[in-house]
Prior knowledge:
This protein is an alpha/beta fold. It has 11 helices and 21 strands. β3 (40-44) and β4 (50-56) form a beta hairpin. α2 packs across α5 (138-148), α6 packs parallel to α7 (233-240) and α10 packs across α11. One of its GO terms (molecular function) is RNA binding.
Amino acid sequence: MRETILTVKKEFVNKYKKGYPLIFEEALENIKTLKEEGQIITLIDEKKAFLGRGYYGKQNKGTGWILSNSKKSDIDYKLFYDKLRNAFSKREKFYYSRDTNAFRAFNGEGDGIGGLTIDYFNGYYLITWYSKGIYAFKDMILKAIKALVPLDGIYEKKRFDENGMVIDENSYVCGRKASEPLIVKENGVNFAIYLNDGAMVGIFLDQKEVRKSIKDKYSENKRVLNTFSYTGAFSMAAAKGNAITTSVDLAARSLDKTIENFTINNIDHKEHNIIVEDIFVYFKQAKKNDLKFDVVILDPPSFATSKDNRFSAARDYKDLIKLAIDITEDEGLIVASTNCATFNMIKFKKFIDQAFKESNKNYEILEEHHLPEDFAVTEKFPEGNYLKVVFIRIN
Ligand code: SAH
């Protein structure tokens, strides 16, 4: 096996001894010897003791991932096969579920291979490659998937080049082509998926438990405002739970996509509101008109720029919550969600607390969510659990 041996700086040795999976430049002595992504890397300490073996692949997070902490194991077909088999068998419950056929089948370092995720959509597998390095193992990984599970087809997104964005190209890899849309089910709610339509396929699977909770516990006869609504996934959950929903998103595409999702759930979209508008403009008008909702869902991107507004979750989330408080009924509910990796749950709750203090309102936290179980995380890389969702009741 062609491998590059790199020495870990003294102060980082302990981190790797404990199984930290991310390889990052600051931790390494002789980084210059790395040439080609996909190269096998073996990390050793200054006394040449083995620390881990992985691959070179550049992502915004780091320089590569450790795939094995055993000196004897090679980065080969068997390693990929075993990790995939283990991950798929852990999802047995999802494979056999009657009301859910969309889930994450393999979640990066949480399942032992950083830089690789695989989502399952009703018979189809969607692979996301986060670096040229992991893409170098494509043949082995495809072979392992085909050997392990029956499937209709495989699609892929390459999130390298162009600063981690998906470059617009054909996502089809092999098998049958998926219908467009491909209809999937999550806890009895249908969603329209487009596997071959750019970076986002129509649903963010990491919110499955949040959607379920909204549907089952907080929607009956409620007026629900879904902000940053994208394809209206939260609106579908709420509407299935008998809410009247208002979905607001800046992107023109959200209108058709949200109507389509209502239609495939046999819900008349005309009984719901779908608004294409800057949410900050909407908040202002709603306040002026004294509009109030029973439930307000906040799920903004970490960064967003519109004509008149620039939003950064780390800087502006507190103000976003204040805007929501203004148009939520007393005893109403705010669902605040963020996938921003630069702050943790403790800090997020501080934003919430400040917002309520500044609005002179009391609150109670009813639920907290992180990533669901199909989005496996390892305690060796806790920062992989980026999702933070808080259900807040105004008192
Ligand atoms: N909550 C969604 C996912 C949100 S993705 C879900 O659960 O599926 C982020 C969305 O925010 C995008 O659709 C984008 O168009 C929208 N967006 C970004 N800035 C916005 C703004 N200022 N006002 C309204 N929508 C905005």
